[in-house]
Amino acid sequence: MGDFSITLDTSRIQRDLSDMQKQIPYATSVAVNSLAFDAMRLENSAMSEIFDHPRPFTTRATQVDKATKSDPTAVVSLRDQQAKYLTPYETGGDHWVGARDGTGDLLVPVDGRTDAYGQIPRGLIKRLLARPDVFAGTVRGIRGIWQRPTRGTRRDGSRGTKGTTRLKLLYMFRPNKAVDKHLDFEQRAAEMVQREGTKAIEAAILKTIRTAR
Fold first, then answer.
1. Average pLDDT score over residue span 176-193
2. In this structure, how many other beta carbons lie within 10 angstroms of the beta carbon of residue 178?
3. Average pLDDT in the 147-152 region?
4. Close Cβ partners of 108 (under 8 Å, ≥ 6 residues apart)
5. Which of 120, 103, 102, 100 lies closest to 111, judged by CA?
6. 3-class state of residue 128 by DSSP
7. CB contact at 8 A, 194 and 52
């Protein structure tokens, strides 16, 4: 039986494999970014489950710093402004009160205006305290933001307080306390990556193959 030989030209296969090797950083960044944005949407959606009727500002609290071919790391984080008050819900501790009161107490509505989400509108306290009929202080042992009675011309023509002479308590300062909810920010994202990571890699590889053709 005679010998025979088979010769294959593998140069094209080698070129294709080499091209695919070059595409690995791109495929990696695609997979990582896909997972990162899925995590961002998951975290933002969870805000409505954790908090009662949160503001849109809170439900858009998460951001992504995208991965690149040269740096295949994406960072999912809270935006700076939202992180100020949301961080205690992840790490524990007291509610964030900002610079509204130097004692660190909470300011809660009593008979003052709130927004559609039951919270004190941003900048309202500063505007109120600029009015002559509103002041911050302690009255009858209660520390808060108070409104003085309206003054003007009475029905009898005299000037003075109209109607009741009692002060109105708009907002009350109360001792701060530890938050009673937990964000589970890191755990939620880690579980999602573990659950969806393989599919994201497969999808990125398929996309890379299609775009390379």
1. 92
2. 9
3. 77
4. 171, 172, 173, 174
5. 120
6. helix
7. no
d(CA 126, CA 40): 34
Is the model's pLDDT at 156 over the cut of 70? no
Report the alpha-carbon distance of residue 51 to residue 97 in Å, rounded.
17
Task: Tell me the pLDDT band of 159, cut-offs 50, 70 and 90.
Answer: low
Report angle CA 75, 80, 81 to the nearest 5 degrees.
145
The confidence score (pLDDT) of residue 44 equals 97
Other beta carbons less than 10 A from residue 40's beta carbon: 19
Q: For 170, phi and psi rounded to 5 degrees?
A: -85, -50
> Is pLDDT above 50 for 8?
no
Pairwise CA distance, residues 138 & 105, whole Å: 14
Residue 123 tokens read as: 């900048």
**Tell me, what's the pLDDT at 129?**
94
Lowest mean pLDDT, pick from 23-27, 42-46, 74-78: 23-27
Q: Residue 70 CB: number of other CB atoms within 10 A? A: 7
**Alpha carbon 38 to its chain's center:** 15
Cα-based distances in Å from 127 to 81, 130, 133, 149, 162: 21, 5, 12, 18, 23
